[in-house]
Specification:
By secondary structure, this protein is of the alpha/beta class. It has helices at about 20-25, 50-65, 75-85, 100-105, 120, 125-135, 150-155, 160-175, 190-200, 210-220, 250-255; strands at about 10, 35, 70-75, 95, 110-115, 140-145, 180-185, 205, 235-240, 265-270. The longest helix is centred in the first third of the chain and has 17 residues, at about 50-65.
Length: about 280
């Protein structure tokens, strides 16, 4: 098989990266994609840095063994914690997703920015350096959001518990008078409506799914790895998860196709096998 028609592996701890997979599918429709929700180990945000690095290295090696031409780490937590050491070990392009601090710093008018992240991201050195680098004269308020990822993984977008947690995390940022809110975890955009209802119209919400798709397209092009034509590429997406739970397949269909009844083949990643 030509390198150009090989698949792109996309990884997140769960459904969070689906918005990125969707943006990639729309921007690069000729590319074959394999999406892995590593939900057996979700949430990554409450694991140690060592664990996340080992796990990401393991999965990426499986993707490489099966011939993937590029990898997208569709997870802020795994990117800030694992991408540097991963890039030092592999030769294929690795694209990550980082909290969109740079655009937020440019857009904020009152120079007060809130950022919602996982616990692990909030403590990470690379993340804190990223803030320092792009902060300029902005005040940036970091809010770790324990518990949200688990609720999203269960499809609990509107449950009272979810509403209560969101209030708890957003209230302190409102008190700081922010005018810009960065969603620094790929799961959180699935709560965008609920977040918007809490913060009102005067605060701008920023997430970065389409930027990742554009960056991936550029990198494939630079490496001469783009799937050139529809005829040659198998334009399909294979979905995997490391733990099958009731309704997980339906949740995938709802979040990827905006249609819970859409048929989707969610396969089990049994740690050793992955079909490409
Ligand atoms: N969606 C991921 C992120 O962007 C990970 C969330 C988690 O598993 O804690 O950070």
């Amino acid at each position: 098989m030509s390198r150009n028609t090989a698949a792109i592996g996309i990884i997140d701890s769960g459904v969070g990266g689906l918005a990125i997979a969707k943006a990639i599918h729309q921007h690069l429709p000729n590319e074959k994609l394999i999406y892995l929700a590593d939900n057996y180990y979700a949430p990554y945000g409450e694991k140690t840095a060592y664990f996340i690095q080992q796990r990401i290295n393991f999965i990426v090696q499986k993707f490489i063994d099966k011939g993937c031409k590029a990898i997208v780490i569709a997870c802020n937590t795994a990117t800030v914690i694992a991408i540097d050491q991963l890039r030092a070990q592999v030769t294929i392009p690795i694209i990550g997703v980082e909290p969109a601090i740079k655009p937020a710093s440019k857009q904020s008018e009152n120079k007060k920015i809130g950022i919602l992240v996982t616990q692990a991201t909030s403590e990470n050195k690379r993340f804190l350096t990223l803030i320092k680098t792009h902060q300029n004269d902005n005040d940036i308020f970091i809010q770790p959001c324990a518990g949200l990822v688990e609720l999203i993984e269960q499809g609990q977008f509107t449950s009272p518990v979810c509403q209560q947690l969101l209030q708890q995390y957003i209230q302190p940022l409102l008190q700081k008078n922010i005018d810009t809110l960065v969603l620094g975890c790929t799961h959180y955009p699935f709560l965008k409506h609920q977040i918007a209802a809490l913060i009102g119209d005067n605060i701008n919400i920023i997430d970065g799914a389409s930027a990742v798709a554009i960056q991936l397209g550029n990198i494939l092009y630079q490496h001469n790895l783009s799937a050139a034509s529809r005829e040659k590429a198998t334009t399909k997406i294979d979905f995997y998860c490391s733990k099958k739970t009731p309704n997980y397949q339906q949740l995938f269909a709802q979040l990827f196709y905006a249609e819970p009844q859409q048929s989707i083949n969610l396969q089990h990643f049994d740690q050793n096998q992955i079909e490409v």
